Amino acid sequence: MRTKFTVLILLFVFGIVSLVQAKPNQQIVVKINQQKTDAKSKLTIKFSELIEESRCPTDVQCIQAGSARIKIEVKNGKSAAKTFELATGAKAKSIAVGGHTIKLTDLNPHPASNIRIDRNGYPATFSVGKTGK
């Protein structure tokens, strides 16, 4: 009985430790032609351009889902900004800057067949976390 109790205590303690160590990525929303600085990573992300918008409209059935590509500028502290392209869908990838990983997780609004979207009205959502997590 004592062994079972000890095992349960150890499982509980190690479970709590692993929960404390698992830190979620920071979510940052940046509108086109604007920038934000992530307080934890000290990275400044500027959403500079919508390069491509070929996502399937939400009210239409498409053969392919399509994707959207954007250009961002990332500044790590006082260093010079670097330019990157990120995409949604099958072309999605992440970039590594200053020990952190940045990934485009959402781009709004999603296209619809009956709505014309102002190219300056897009906010992009990025996930920022420590590299290797």
Topology:
Blueprint: H1 2-21, E1 26-31, E2 34-37, E3 43-53, E4 68-76, E5 82-87, E6 94-97, E7 100-107, E8 123-130
Antiparallel strand pairs: 1-8, 2-3, 3-4, 4-5, 6-7, 7-8
Q: Keyphrases for this structure?
A:
Tick-borne Encephalitis virus Glycoprotein, domain 1, 4-stranded antiparallel beta sheet, 15% helix, alpha+beta, 133 residues
Q: Name the poorly predicted regions.
A: 4-8, 16-22
Percent helix among the residues? Answer: 10-25%
The CATH topology name reads: Tick-borne Encephalitis virus Glycoprotein, domain 1
Query: In sequence order, what are the helices and strands, one letter per element?
Result: HEEEEEEEE
Class derived from helix and strand content: alpha+beta
- State the strand order across the main sheet: 1-8-7-6
Query: DSSP strand (E) fraction?
Result: 35-45%
Question: Tally the helices: what do you get?
Answer: 1
What does this structure look like?
The protein is of the alpha+beta class. It has one domain: Sandwich (Tick-borne Encephalitis virus Glycoprotein, domain 1), CATH 2.60.98. The strands form 2 sheets. The chain has a 4-stranded antiparallel sheet, with no helix packed on it. A hairpin with a 5-residue loop joins strand 2 and strand 3. The longest helix has 20 residues. It starts with a helix and ends with a strand.
